[in-house]
Structure formats: structure tokens, C-alpha cells
Write a structure and sequence with these properties.
With 281 residues, the chain is an alpha/beta fold. The protein contains 12 helices and 8 strands. 43% of the residues lie in helices and 14% in strands. Bound molecules: 3-methyl-2-oxobutanoic acid.
Amino acid sequence: MPKVTIQTLRDKRARREPMTFLTAYDYPFAILEQKAGIDVILVGDSMGMVVFGYDSTLPVTMDLMIPHVKAVRLGAPDVYLVGDMPYMSYQVSISEAVRNGGRFMAEGGCDAVKLEGGREMADTIRAMANATIPVMGHMGLTPQAVAQLGGYKAQGRDLETAKKLIEDARILEDAGLSSLLLEAVPAEVGEIITRRSSVPVFGIGAGPHCDGQVLVIHDMIGMFDRHTAKFVKKYREIGAQILEALADFRKDVETGIFPAKEHCYPMPQDVAAELAKLYGK
Ligand code: KIV
């Protein structure tokens, strides 16, 4: 497939062609997602939870992210690749945000970076865009602010907070945002923001009117059961299939079924006979 660029995403939005967007954290999943024709891959800080087992995304660092981004880029050279800026990699100062965003682009080969927040991020986004770093915004439920939000809850469900999200989206666009991800907001809010936007809008739990739909790969293939959000559709139960394979392997070894003859290296008969003479059978 030809390389997906920001122009590809803009053209698809203009043609109202729904886009697909998944997370990936390693080379094998990246290969599969590119083969499946997924438009956008995010190396998300959700990695902290679904790959490393933390109970939030907060412990994820730049040094943890960069090798995973490199692996995903190697597996999926043609997708639009977004690096997720981890907690405190862009909030402390604008210069740190530009430096860390630049690492995702230069070391990781990303097409864009994603950061969480509303209007308070406008100056940071402007500086990053001026430094040639395309930024995807992330609004609505912003998991890095879980302590402030008091949990992983849907956002923008009353008039005041819905209006704030709609206004913030416009402010960030004016600051130079190149695309937007909306998480866990009512479909009405997703629709209004998408309609008023001039950049591609992707939704994870933001209804059917966004330009594209996002899911976390481990959620949609049934490999992360600790918490399943309302917006997740499970397309397979791969975790259960892996568990069956592991149980079969254990049973085969314990009952002597594995390894069978076809899994063993043959030896010439005369050498085997000589060895038996020397060491017994
Ligand atoms: O880190 C992540 O996986 C995310 C999701 C909202 C896609 O940001």
C-alpha cells in the first residue's frame, strides 16, 4: 500500500471515507495491522497497562516508548504512525515538549505525536507545530489526568463541559493541531466537533460520526480483561485461544506426545549404532 500521510487522512476525511486506527506496541502486531490496511497506528502509553501491567499510564517514560516506536515503524513502514507522549514528557515546559516530540519524529520515525489536554496545551502545540512536529490532540477522557478526573469516566455529558470541549477543539486547531482524538464523549459531542473541524477527527467511544474509529489492539482481540470500557467491541478472544494452546502444550509434554519423531533431528544409522555401542541404549 502507498505510504499513509496526513494528506491521505485529509483526503479520506474529505471523501467521508471512514478510517481505521489501532494501537500497536511491537513488530509482529505492526506487520499484521499494516497487512490489514489499518490507516493509523498509535504506539500508545496504554502500553503501560496492557503490556507492562501497571494500573495506569503514568509510569510510562520516553525511554520506554522509543524502542517500541522503532519496532512498530519497522513492522509497519507505510502506516501513519503516531507516538504517544508519556506523562510529564510535555507538561513541564514547552522546550521539553519540543525536544521529546522531536525524539519521536527523529528516533522513532513517527508521522506525528499525540498529547492530552485542552486549551491549556495551545501554546505547546503552537511551538511544536512551529518546530515541524505534527501534533494529534487527545481530548475528552484523558487517562493521564485520571487523578484529577477521579477515575476513567465519560466526559462532556453536561452542557457546560460539552461546550468547553467543543470550544477547546477549535482553540487547539487554531494553535496548529494536525489531527484530533476524542475519547469517551457522547456521540453528539463527537459529531459537533467532527463537523466543525478542519482536521481529521478520530474517536474512541465518541460515536459513529468521527472521521475514523480507534481501538486498543489488546482490548479488541480479547487480550486484556482487567477492565473493559463501554466503547470496546471484542472481535476475537485471542487470549482464550492462547490459553488453550498453552494447556495443550503442557498436556503433550506431560504425556510424552511432544516432541514426536517429526520434531527430532535424524542421525545416520551407522553413527547411532556406534554411539549405542559406546554409551549403551
Ligand atoms: O494510549 C492509548 O492507547 C490511547 C488510546 C486512547 C488510543 O491514547
